[in-house]
Design a protein that fits this description.
The protein is α+β, with helices and mostly antiparallel strands. The protein is built from 26 helices and 20 strands.
Length: 736
C-alpha cells in the first residue's frame, strides 16, 4: 500500500492544495484543467478563489502601480505647466489654498530652510502656532519638497505637490485593484476614473490638504486587504503601509479624512477578514488604527494641545456646514444650468453606476461591502437632511469636524472602485478569448462611456475654473505687483522689531500673501486655531483706536477708505496706487511695551467686551489673585536683546512692579521667565499676553514651544521600534 500525502504550496501569499501524491512524488489524481475564462459566468467568479495567469501578486501590483502613477503625475504636471505658460499664474492657488494653506506652508518651509523647527510664525495674524495647525502640512515632507523644487517666491509649489499626489492617488488605486485580482486594463480604468473625479479636483484647486490626504486612501485600503488575510503579518510590511497611509493623511493636513478612511479600513478587515475568530480580526483592525495614530502623534498631540482654546473648539459654524442638497439625479447628470457653475461637483455618470451594478451582482461580499460604503457616504453627505448625520455628529470625534458634504468622497472613491471591478467582470472573457459578442460590446461601450462622461464633465469644470481664474487673477496679480513695487517691503524692513501690517483691503484679493514679502500681518483670512479673542479683535481692527492697541504700523487699504484711516491721529498716507493706499503710523508702535496703565479684569470674556466698547480705555489684563499680579505702576522701558520667531530676550527697566505687554498672539505653549525664574503669563490686550515684572532692571525671556511635539515624536519613535522588534521576532520564529 502506498502512503498518500497531501502537498501544500504557497504562491503569491496564498496557500493552495496540490493533488494527492505518493511518497515518491508520483501524482495519483489528475491535475485540474487550467482555468479558462470562456463564459460570462466564469469571469464573474470571485478572483480570490480563482486566480488566472494574469492575476498579480504584491510585487507585480507594485510595478503596475508605479507605472500608472508616474504616467498620471506626468499628465497632471504637463497640464499645470501648460496653464502656467498660457496664464502666467499657478493653477492650484485658489480659495483657501491662497488664503490659508499656502501662507502656512510657505512659513513652515522658510523655517526649515533656516535650520529651525517652524513652531511659530510672526508673519500671520500677529503670531501663529504653525505646527499646531495641520492644514499647512508643516511636518509633511512632500509639500516641503515641492517648495524646494520651485523658485522663489514658490507660487507654483502647490502645482508641483498636486501633480505628485495625482500620481500617488492613481498608483494606490491600481495597486489596490491589482491586489483584488483585477486585470491591468480594468485597474488602469479605475485609476483613470479617479484621476478624472471632479469632486477631487475641487480639493486640489481650493483645499490641497484634502486632496493630499485623499491620495492615501487606496494605499490604506490595500493594506487592509492584505491584513485581512491570516498569512499577512500584523506588524510586517503591509502593516507599515497602512500606518504610513493613515499618518500621511494627518501630516498632509487633514485628520478628518484619516478618520473616515481608517474606519472603512477597519471594517474592511472585520467584515471581509479570513480569520475565523472575531477577536483576531478586531486585533488586526485595532493594530492598524493605533499604528497610524502613533506615527501621526507629533501632529495630533500638537493640534490637540491648542484645539480646546481655539475658535475651532467652539464647534462647526453654520456657514461651514455644507451638505449635499442637489436632486438625487445630480450624480447621474448635472441639473440644468449647474453643470459648470455648481459649487460642488458631485458627478458620477450613468456608465460608472451601471458598471458598479455589474460588480455588485457578480463580485460577492467585496462588492457589497464597497457598495455599502458608497451608500452610507451618500446619506451622510446629505447632512441634517437625514437623522443619520446628526446622530454621528454627536459623537466626540465627529463633533469637531465641519461639512457633511465631505462624506461624498467615500461615495466617489467607492463607485470608482466598483466600476473597475465591474469592468473587470466584463473584460475578462474578452481578454481571455478575444471574443466579439454582446459581452465584449457591452464592456467596451460602458468603459468608454464612463471615461467620456467623466472626461466631458471634467473638461467643463476645468474650463469654468480657468475662466474664473482669468477674471480674478489679474486683480490678484495686480495687487501682488503693486505690493512688490511699492515701498511697503522696504519700509517694513527698515524697523526690525515693528513691522505689523493691517490689511483692510478685501481678503480675496490679498489674503495672507504678505508672507511672500516677509511682512507681518494682523488679518487676511480666517485662522481656526487662533484663540477666541482673535475673531473680535481682527474683525473690529479697522477702528483706528484698535489699530493702535494691536500695534499696527502700516495699513493697506482700498482707495475709497484711505481718508477714514488718515483722519485718525498719528496716521498719514505715504503712498497711493490705483486700487489701494498705504498708511503709516508715526511714531511706530512697539511689539514689547511696559504698560503705563492697565485695567485688571476677571475673565477673557470681560476683556473682549471692553475692547468692543471703547478702544481708548486702558489695556485690559486678566489677573488672578496673588502678589505678582498686582496693578502696574509707572511706565518703564523694554530693550530687545535677541528676537526670533517664538522667542525673545528683553532687558526691562521699571521703577516698580509693572506689566510687560507682548504683542504676540497668545496660545497654549508660551512661557516666560524673569531673571531665569518662571513667571506667570496673563491674557492682555485682547489676543495678546503680558508678564509681571518686579521693580528694577531684569532680564525677561519669552518662548513658545509647541505642546505635544516632543511627546508625540517620542511616541512615534517608540511605536516604530516596538513594531520592528515584533516583526523581527516573528521572522525568527518562522512566521511568514
Amino acid at each position: 500500500m502506498q502512503l498518500l500525502v497531501r502537498r501544500c504550496s504557497v504562491r503569491n501569499g496564498r496557500r493552495r492544495l496540490l493533488p494527492l501524491a505518493s511518497r515518491e512524488g508520483r501524482t495519483l489524481l489528475p491535475k485540474k484543467r487550467p482555468f479558462r475564462l470562456g463564459a460570462f459566468g466564469h469571469a464573474a467568479m470571485s478572483s480570490t478563489n480563482n486566480a488566472s495567469p494574469r492575476d498579480a501578486g504584491p510585487r507585480e501590483a507594485l510595478v503596475d502601480a508605479a507605472i500608472a502613477g508616474s504616467a498620471a503625475s506626468l499628465v497632471a504636471l504637463a497640464f499645470f505647466w501648460s496653464y502656467a505658460q498660457a496664464m502666467g499664474e499657478p493653477w492650484a492657488l485658489g480659495g483657501d489654498n491662497q488664503l490659508i494653506q499656502f501662507p502656512i506652508a510657505f512659513e513652515a518651509y522658510r523655517g526649515w530652510s533656516e535650520s529651525r523647527i517652524p513652531e511659530w510664525s510672526t508673519r500671520l495674524w500677529s503670531g501663529y502656532p504653525l505646527l499646531a495647525d495641520p492644514i499647512g502640512g508643516p511636518l509633511y515632507v512632500p509639500h516641503m519638497l515641492a517648495f524646494a523644487l520651485t523658485a522663489a517666491p514658490h507660487l507654483f509649489a502647490f502645482d508641483v505637490s498636486t501633480g505628485l499626489h495625482c500620481g500617488l492617488f492613481v498608483a494606490g488605486t491600481v495597486f489596490l485593484l491589482r491586489l483584488l485580482q483585477v486585470s491591468r486594463v480594468a485597474a488602469a480604468f479605475g485609476g483613470a476614473l479617479l484621476l478624472l473625479a471632479p469632486f477631487s479636483h475641487q480639493w486640489a484647486t481650493h483645499l490641497i490638504p484634502q486632496y493630499s490626504a485623499l491620495a492615501y486612501w487606496p494605499w490604506l485600503f490595500a493594506a487592509a486587504e492584505m491584513l485581512r488575510r491570516p498569512e499577512t503579518s500584523p506588524v510586517g510590511g503591509f502593516a507599515w503601509l497602512g500606518w504610513l497611509a493613515m499618518a500621511g493623511q494627518v501630516m498632509a493636513g487633514y485628520p478628518e479624512f484619516a478618520l473616515y478612511s481608517g474606519i472603512v479600513a477597519g471594517l474592511w478587515i472585520l467584515v471581509l477578514g479570513d480569520e475565523r475568530t472575531l477577536g483576531s480580526r478586531l486585533g488586526r483592525a485595532i493594530s492598524l488604527g493605533f499604528g497610524g495614530l502613533a506615527l501621526a502623534a507629533p501632529q495630533l498631540l500638537t493640534t490637540a494641545a491648542v484645539l480646546s482654546q481655539s475658535m475651532r473648539g467652539e464647534g462647526p459654524n453654520p456657514w461651514l456646514s455644507h451638505a449635499l442638497s442637489l436632486p438625487w439625479t445630480a450624480p447621474l447628470h448635472p441639473p440644468a444650468g449647474t453643470s459648470v457653475t455648481a459649487q460642488f461637483a458631485t458627478f458620477l455618470g450613468y456608465a460608472s453606476l451601471l458598471l458598479s451594478l455589474v460588480a455588485v451582482a457578480r463580485r460577492g461580499r467585496l462588492a457589497w461591502f464597497i457598495a455599502s460604503v458608497a451608500a452610507i457616504g451618500y446619506v451622510l453627505s446629505l447632512g441634517p437632511g437625514t437623522p443619520l448625520y446628526p446622530a454621528l455628529h454627536a459623537l466626540p470625534p465627529f463633533a469637531i469636524f465641519r461639512g457633511p458634504l465631505k462624506f461624498w468622497q467615500l461615495t466617489e472613491v467607492s463607485v470608482a472602485l466598483l466600476a473597475a471591478l465591474g469592468a473587470d467582470v466584463l473584460l475578462r472573457p474578452v481578454l481571455a478569448t478575444r471574443r466579439r459578442d454582446l459581452v465584449a460590446a457591452a464592456a467596451l461601450v460602458l468603459i468608454a462611456g464612463a471615461l467620456v462622461e467623466r472626461g466631458a464633465y471634467t473638461a467643463q469644470r476645468l474650463r469654468h475654473y480657468a475662466r474664473f481664474r482669468a477674471d480674478l487673477l489679474p486683480r490678484q496679480g495686480e495687487m501682488l505687483r503693486s505690493i512688490e513695487d511699492s515701498g511697503l517691503v522696504e519700509r517694513a524692513s527698515s524697523e526690525r522689531f515693528s513691522r505689523t501690517l493691517f490689511a483692510a483691503h478685501p481678503e480675496l484679493i490679498f489674503g495672507n500673501m504678505n508672507v511672500v514679502f516677509g511682512v507681518d500681518s494682523l488679518r487676511g483670512g480666517p485662522a481656526q486655531l487662533l484663540g477666541r479673542t482673535h475673531g473680535p479683535a481682527l474683525r473690529n481692527a479697522g477702528r483706528p483706536g484698535l489699530l493702535d492697541r494691536a500695534g499696527a504700523r502700516f495699513v493697506l487699504a482700498s482707495t475709497n477708505t484711505c481718508d477714514h484711516f488718515a483722519a485718525a491721529p498719528d496716521w498719514q498716507i505715504v503712498e497711493t496706487r490705483p486700487t489701494l493706499c498705504l498708511l503709516e503710523r508715526t511714531p511706530p508702535p512697539l511689539r514689547y511695551e511696559v504698560l503705563a496703565e492697565a485695567a485688571p479684569l476677571g475673565s477673557v470674556g470681560e476683556m473682549v467686551e471692553r475692547m468692543r466698547a471703547d478702544a481708548t480705555l486702558p489695556v485690559g489684563v486678566v489677573l488672578d489673585a496673588g502678589p505678582s499680579a498686582g496693578p502696574p505702576g509707572a511706565a518703564g522701558e523694554a530693550r530687545i536683546l535677541e528676537e526670533s520667531p517664538g522667542r525673545a530676550r528683553l532687558r526691562v527697566s521699571t521703577d516698580h512692579e509693572a506689566l510687560l505687554l507682548v504683542r504676540e498672539s497668545w496660545t497654549p505653549g508660551w512661557s516666560a521667565a524673569v531673571d531665569d525664574v518662571a513667571a506667570q503669563i496673563h491674557r492682555a490686550g485682547g489676543p495678546f499676553f503680558a508678564v509681571a515684572v518686579p521693580a528694577g532692571e531684569h532680564l525677561v525671556e519669552i518662548e513658545y514651544r509647541a505642546r505635544g511635539l516632543r511627546e508625540g515624536t517620542a511616541l512615534a519613535l517608540m511605536w516604530a521600534v516596538i513594531a520592528l522588534l515584533l516583526a523581527m521576532r516573528r521572522a525568527r520564529a518562522g512566521v511568514h
